[in-house]
Structure formats: C-alpha cells, structure tokens
Write a structure and sequence with these properties.
Rossmann fold; Arc Repressor Mutant, subunit A; 3 domains; 3-stranded parallel beta sheet; 12 strands; about 10% strand; elongated; nucleotide-binding; GluQ/Sye; glutamate-tRNA ligase activity; ligase
C-alpha cells in the first residue's frame, strides 16, 4: 500500500503573504487534495525579532481568501524549540555532530586569512575531531553537524532532476547556537519529519538548503521526503518579481477585485501546465496537477492573462458565490457594505452583469444602476447625453412604456416606435436612456436594466431625467 501524501506550507511571518508564497501554498494544496492526502500549515516564527502576530494573521487571512483550507492545527515552529534541541543532542550522542568552541572572532579571523590566501572561506572547525578531554570547561559551544568531506550529495528533485553538490562545498552547519537556540535549518527538518511530510514542494531558492538538510535526515536514519523545488515568479520584464512590477502581496490582489477562483486558476497555471488548458475548475486542477507538469524556468506574471482568466470565472460563477466574493472584496477595501436591498438588486441583475466583467470593480461599475436609487445623479460623461432634445424624447417615451407589456419584446417595441416617430435609430436613444437609468455610460443593455428595475422604478427615473433642468 502506498504511503499517504502529506504536504505543507511553511511561511515566515515577517511580512505580507507574497504572491510567490501563495502559489507555493496552492501547489502543495493541489498535490495533497488531488491524492486524498493531507495539507498542513506551519508558521516558521523562529526569527523572534522579525516575526509578528499581524503577519501571521495576514498569512492566514490570505490563505482563507484564496480558499486553501489546511488540515489540523497551525504548527508554530518556535513552540517546538525543545524538540529541535533534543534532536541536536541526539546527533551529538550518535557522533554525527560535535561541540564547537570556536568564537565569532576566531571564525572571522579564519575567513579573513582564507580570503587573503585565496582559499575557500568555508569554515573548517578545529573541534571536529578534537578529543573531548581537550574541551574547555564551562565554555559556551555550538553543536555542528559533521558534513561528509569527500564525494558529492545528490538531490533527487522531482522538478529540477538530479542536482549534484560537491561535499567540499558544504560546511559543518550549526544545529544549536551557543545560547542553546536551534537554527532554522534544523527546525525545518525536525518539523517535516515529525509532521510526517512526504513531499517538500517549495521555491528553488531553497535548493541548496536541501543538500545540507539531507545530512540531518541521513544521520538520524529518517526517510527523505520527495523534493520538488519550483522556479520563482518573475515580473513581465523577466526580472525577479518586486514592488516595481506592481502588486506582490496576495491581499493586494483581493483589494484590486480579482475573484479567488480566478486567482487560483491563474496561479496554478503560473509555472505549471496541463496541455494547452488555460481555464479550469478546482476539481480539474486537483485531478490534473502533478509535479512533472512544473517547468524548470521562472514563470512570468502577466496581468492581461490574469484578467482574462478571472473574467471567465466571473462569467460561470454561481450568483450567490459571486455575491459572497463581492461582499468580501468590499470588506477588504474597507468600503461600506451593501444593504439587503442592494444585494437583492445585484442578485436580480447578475445575469446581465457577469459577461465581459474581468474584475469585481468592473462588475460593480456595470451594476451601478441597481446599486443607486432615484433620483439618479449622472456622472460627467452621462450628463452630456441628457440635452433638451433627448429629455423631450424621454418624456415622450414614458407613456409608451406605461402601456407596454414589461418584457424584452414589449419594451423594444415601445422604444423603437418612439425612435421611428423621430426618424432616428434606436442607438441615438441608448445614450440618454443609460444616463437616465444608470447615470453612467457603461451599463448592461437598457432593456436588461428596465427588466431588473421593474416598471415603477424605471418610469420614475425616466420621469425625473425628463424634467430635470438641462
């Protein structure tokens, strides 16, 4: 029977959730969910000076918005320091690690001399093979792992292939500092082992760490996880993604109004592919996602593609789910929440809002007609469509609509009759009608707006627009 898949996402709470981190979380989530496995969350808060509760909250909030649910409790790495130290001492007892009494000054002097002589600055501790009888009494010491000195370490990576690192490039890394605190590199390995992690899927900036971390697994006699180091995300210009390219924090994308489903789809496609499929559901992504579909070169962020995918998701989303997404978007922006009446109106209008809206702000702009109430205050562009002539035509249209059957055909017939009487095409009436009903120039079709608003509200708005002063 094959082993159950366990993946993890392990961010450091020193700032916002970077979009690259969000994609790493997504890949881990997809891999576990598609195989009936477990997806765990660990907060790597060992850097006490830089870790903040606010950053942890932002990470949890970002994952929640993106819809990446994790199994079990959130693990705090800092809370497990005693266990990390226990493993360091176990390695010491096995002879796989040693006490190093070298001071910072001695290490720096070694490096300076090595630089001057053109030798490798990789520190070689004189305490590695020292007789314990020579250890100074009561002096502080670090615990270092004995790295192999010859041969090579091979990382068998599911994305990068076999990566070979000469062991002469590896130093005897510190496991426990002289103040007794464990280092991050030790903590990661112990936590992954104790949490039963089978697949370590993370950014390829951790690739060199894997060679050093493997030494701990081997020395403890623990099974290695499957490593999959994924390339980083670059900006459109091919350079490492940074703030100059625009948004890099996940919460910024929520505030810009991209729906979570579209974001999941786009991020999954960023560096991973399944044939030529660009648009897919969560179910398809979970079924299709595999490590061999991840490319070796960095992916490039493309806002046009992101908008395109998000537009497709908005178009097919259930109305209630879309309303929920809009509610969360407004809350994230700190905007006034929708009233119950506005929510009802949105639900009635959803069928004519979803097409061609690529983001939630675009959809809400089109929905202005149902979110506002009479008297409608037209914006500058729309006001230009309401001159004396068009107001006169709107006044004339009102009684025709009062007698029309309130269906698309009935409304079209009544409107076309007035247009014909004036010898104009319906298109000439569309601008004033949009201005009267919505106060905007970009709206759904005027007939959809009339159907959504109903006879009473439609006639009230037309009457008010017809009598307003030019």
């Amino acid at each position: 029977m094959s082993q159950k898949v366990v993946t993890r996402f392990a961010p450091s709470p020193t700032g916002y959730l970077h979009i690259g981190g969000a994609r790493t979380a997504l890949f881990n989530w997809l891999y576990a969910r598609g195989r009936g496995g477990t997806f765990l969350l660990r907060i790597e808060d060992t850097d006490r000076a830089r870790s903040t509760p606010e950053a942890t909250a932002a990470i949890l909030q970002g994952l929640d918005w993106l819809g990446l649910d994790h199994d079990g409790e959130v693990v705090s790495q800092a809370a497990r320091a005693d266990r990390h130290a226990e493993v360091a001492h176990a390695l010491l007892d096995k002879g796989a690690a040693y006490k190093c009494f070298s001071t910072q000054e001695e290490i720096e002097a070694f490096r300076e001399a090595a630089r001057a002589e053109g030798r490798s600055t990789l520190f070689r501790s004189p305490w590695r093979d020292a007789d314990p009888a020579t250890h100074p009494e009561d002096a502080p010491f670090a615990i270092r792992l004995k790295a192999p000195e010859t041969g090579e370490t091979v990382i068998r990576d599911a994305v990068q292939g076999d990566v070979r690192i000469g062991n002469d490039q590896l130093d005897d890394m510190i496991l426990l500092r002289s103040d007794g605190t464990p280092v991050y590199m030790l903590a990661v390995v112990v936590d992954d082992h104790d949490m039963g992690v089978t697949h370590v899927i993370r950014g390829d900036d951790h690739l060199n760490n894997a060679a050093r971390q493997m030494g701990i697994y081997t020395a403890m006699g623990w099974d290695l996880p499957v490593y999959a180091h994924i390339p980083l995300i670059h900006g459109p210009d091919g350079k490492k993604l940074s703030k100059r390219h625009g948004a890099v924090g996940l919460e910024e994308y929520q505030v810009m109004g991209y729906p979570a489903a579209g974001m999941r789809n786009y991020l999954a496609r960023l560096g991973w592919s399944h044939g030529d499929d660009e648009f897919f559901t969560d179910e398809q992504a979970q079924e299709w996602f595999d490590l061999d579909g991840i490319g070796k070169s960095p992916a490039r962020l493309d806002f046009k593609k992101l908008e395109n995918v998000c537009g497709q998701h908005i178009a097919v989303m259930e109305d209630a789910a879309l309303l929920h997404e809009i509610t969360r978007y407004l809350a994230a922006k700190g905007d006034v929440p929708l009233t119950e009446a506005q929510k009802d109106g949105l639900m009635r209008a959803m069928y004519c809002l979803k097409d061609r809206a690529k983001t939630l702000p675009e959809l809400l702009e089109k929905a202005h007609f149902v979110l506002t109430s009479a008297p409608v205050d037209p914006d500058e562009k729309a006001a230009k469509a309401l001159d004396d002539v068009s107001r006169g035509i709107l006044k004339e249209l009102t009684p025709h609509l009062q007698n029309a059957s309130w269906s698309r055909d009935g409304l079209e017939a009544a409107t076309n009759a007035v247009a014909d009487a004036h010898g104009i095409k319906f298109g000439k009436m569309a601008g004033p009608l949009r201005a009267a009903l919505a106060g905007r120039t970009v709206t759904p079709s005027v007939f959809d707006m009339m159907l959504v608003l109903g006879p009473e509200e439609t006639l009230l708005r037309l009457e008010q627009a017809g009598r307003a002063e030019a």
